[in-house]
Amino acid sequence: MGTLWIVAASIAGVGLLSSLRILWEYERGVVFRLGRLTRAKGPGLVFVVPFGIERMKRMDLRIVALDIPPQDTITRDNVSVTVNAVVYFRVTDPAKAVVEIEDYYFATSQLAQTTLRSVIGQSELDEILVEREQINRVVRDIIDEGTDPWGIEVTAVEVKDIGLPQEMRRAMAKQAEAERERRGKVIAAAGEAQAAVKLAEAARLLQDHPVAIQLRFLQTAVEIAAENNSTTIFPIPMDLFKPIVEAGERLKALGERSGSPGDGSKTLDAEAAVGALPAGADQVLPAGIDPTMLTEAAKTILGIGSGGSSADEQAIPEAVPATQRAADGEGGGEPSGEGEDE
Fold this sequence. Notes:
With about 350 residues, this protein is of the alpha+beta class.
């Protein structure tokens, strides 16, 4: 009799020890009593009726990172891309995760893959590249809605990489290069505009202070001489050439206003133009130079009196024999007299 009590006590002790379960804080135990769902227990020390009357299935409530393999799909604008992502989800209702779905992990993975392909196929390439946050939000909402009956909550979806064909990458690189060149040209044009404004201000200052341009010439000469070269620069003020330029302009204007060829007005205009030269201009001519010859050459170069050149040329041969006859008449008076005497 005593032995029977010892055996019974041993069996009761073993059954009591086997009916105790310890669940961690992130775990829950779904208990089935004779095959029927009772409730989820935990965390801590949980008692389960031994000898197969109650059975418990452990469920992990921590967030799971599910990697979605690369998905080959075509966007709405007919561009072939390869997209992969990662899904973060966790079990919120352990009883539903056990009863409603056989393998919630595999089911969530398949749903995430099909959803990702569907969303990418309904979007254009520019939207996928630029509005990635919106793509992540849409995919997360669709997956979360599909897994809610299973007791699964999708916390986040992140698109990791978007693979493009090599031809599309080259085209995008050219587009980016062209955009950079456009920005560079716009910036350079803006700089030229600002520089033009500053140069206009500097020109006005130099116009008000003419001596400043001479100082600028000297500064430029110093900068050039500092480079150990054999070039020598002598800045010449433009004021020295002003009388010559003004005289040439007056001569040209008078020549344009002169009369028709053969008209005496050209000669008068030419004389007026010659008179417009600076005083003492004929005094600086070299010795042996005829001023009249230089005046005629200037008329020919400027086109003044060119029309009457033929008449003058015809008059010259006629004048020369007359002069010769006059000379012969003066010098040959005696021979003619002698002939008469004879």
